[in-house]
Design brief:
The chain has 397 residues and is of the alpha/beta class. It has 15 helices and 11 strands. An 8-stranded parallel barrel has the order 1-2-6-7-8-9-10-11, surrounded by 6 helices.
Length: 397
């Protein structure tokens, strides 16, 4: 490509971004309603030295490049939760069949030091535990990350006990299709999910990877249930630590990422989660000050509404040497900005195509999608439209 062509491409890209800003796309893309179970910010606490697993497989020596810049990758966030209850084998199967590049799991600890794939350690919102008389005496009140909470907690059950529970949809009003499967599916461990992904890759000849986020890590350490070595053991058992780009460990807490690094070294990628409360990290100076062990910045959509120039964030992140991901991405009106809503039903289908046009123009690398089937179909259609568009010289002739 000659210099003139490069200049044209640069100006076209800038013009596209400018138009998006004018019509409010950038702000609206990230004006979403999202709920996360995050580790509390207790940086003043001394959690002690990192607990290290010493028998993980050695690094292959391949450099941990920040994913594959220039290609929009899709991760099935919690599986395909608009279709089936999140964090179940069946939900992940739908995401795998849709053609995701990664699946994302959140994990919590059990009493027997196993990793349960769940969106929180309090179980009543996403399982039928409250309706199970044999576990009535497990209901209790605890202070979890500074918040008093009453319910049933993963750390009070063995994995075998948890396997007897059935998954339910946490938000049935928003996701009635998923809620239709309440009680149909069991819970899974992180080992179960890794086996499922490996089996799928072997059968299909694919290389689907895994994002994993330990929840309540500092809280569990206080109970002497260290999640970081448990993750390392599972990844080692699944033989995924040999392939750097196949696994990304993620957390909003740099100390958790440091402990994971102590357990895994350079064998996996490291992702820093930036939520709405930590949007201050989305500046050139703050990004430059992050540890060089970070590979990808995973940004909650709400965080973009709290910075002055949201359209510049991907360029800033890339300039600092990181890939950038965004979550959550879905077709649901409830998770879309005003410019993309269609009708007034929160569960209604919004203008996903318009959203993804903006996302592609702005320059994201990974979309953590809660409707991965629809996201991939729409991205494929946009890619095909780009391919079918005639070259300027063809149009002139």
């Amino acid at each position: 490509m000659d210099g003139a062509s490069e200049d044209q491409v640069w100006w076209v890209r800038r013009a596209v971004v400018a138009v998006l800003v004018v019509v409010g796309v950038v702000t609206a893309v990230f004006a979403v309603v999202a709920t996360r179970a995050e580790d509390a910010d207790d940086s003043a606490r001394d959690d002690g030295p990192a607990e290290v697993v010493t028998d993980f497989l050695p690094s292959s020596g391949v450099s941990n490049g920040p994913l594959r810049l220039g290609t929009v990758l899709v991760a099935g966030r919690h599986g395909d939760p608009v279709a089936k209850p999140e964090h179940t084998a069946e939900s992940y199967a739908d995401a795998l069949d849709a053609g995701v590049d990664y699946v994302e799991a959140q994990v919590v600890m059990t009493s027997d030091e196993q990793l349960l794939v769940r969106g929180d350690n309090e179980l009543s919102r996403s399982t039928d535990v409250a309706d199970r008389p044999e576990f009535a005496d497990r209901e209790t009140t605890k202070v979890v990350d500074g918040v008093e909470t009453t319910g049933w907690f993963s750390e009070d059950f063995t994995l075998d006990e948890l396997r007897t529970l059935r998954a339910t949809e946490p938000d049935p009003a928003l996701r009635p299709d998923s809620a239709a499967y309440d009680g149909d599916f069991g819970l899974i461990s992180f080992d179960d999910l890794l086996t499922q992904v490996n089996d799928f890759n072997l059968a299909q000849g694919t290389e689907v990877g895994v994002f994993v986020e330990p929840l309540r890590a500092s809280y569990f350490r206080g109970l002497r249930l260290a999640v970081e070595p448990a993750i390392a053991k599972s990844l080692r058992k699944a033989r995924l630590v040999n392939e750097p780009e196949r696994v990304t460990v993620e957390s909003a807490d740099l100390r958790v990422l440091a402990r994971l690094e102590a357990n895994l070294g350079d064998n996996v990628l490291s992702g820093l989660v930036v939520d709405g409360d930590s949007s201050r990290l989305l500046t050139a100076d703050a990004l430059a000050g992050l540890p060089d062990t970070i590979d990808v910045i995973i940004v909650e959509s709400e965080a973009f509404t709290k910075v002055d120039e949201p359209q510049r964030v991907p360029d800033l992140v890339h300039a600092a040497g990181f890939a950038i991901g965004v979550y959550p991405v879905s077709f649901e009106n409830a998770l879309l900005g005003e410019d993309f809503k269609v009708g007034t039903d929160p569960a209604g289908v919004g203008d996903l195509e318009k959203l993804l046009r903006g996302v592609r123009a702005i320059g994201f690398d990974v979309l953590l999608a809660e409707s991965p089937t629809e996201v991939i179909e729409t991205l494929d259609a946009l890619e095909q439209a780009d391919t079918d568009e005639p070259e300027p010289s063809d149009a002139a002739s």
